Structures are given as C-alpha cells and as structure tokens.
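For the sake of transparency, this paper describes our internal protein records without simplification. The record that follows is passed on verbatim for readers who wish to inspect the format:
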Amino acid sequence: MTARPCVQDDFLQARVTDKTILNVFLVNGIRLSGQLAGFDQFAVLLELVQACNLFSNMPFRP
C-alpha cells in the first residue's frame, strides 16, 4: 500500500513558494500575520513582515 500525499503539506508548500501573507490564529486567540517560511509535521515558521504594527507585548512567564 502506497502512502498518499497529504493535502495539508501541498497547501502549505504552495504558501511557502508564492509568499502569501497568512493570518495564523493561536489557541489563545492571538493572531499572527506573516509569510510562511517553512513547516514540518509539528510546527510552522512565520516571518513577521511588519513588526512595527504589533499592538501589545505579552511577557513570557514560565
């Protein structure tokens, strides 16, 4: 039995090559906008295109 290509991988690869600006919403509701630089099975890498438009900073506290 041969493995079928993943539709999600095809979609993400197309976004990497055409450099479309994406909005990614995190589980807590925060929206990140940027170009998709890369991805794998577990993560996506965004390049923030206009960091000066950030409206708030949330400090990280472990």
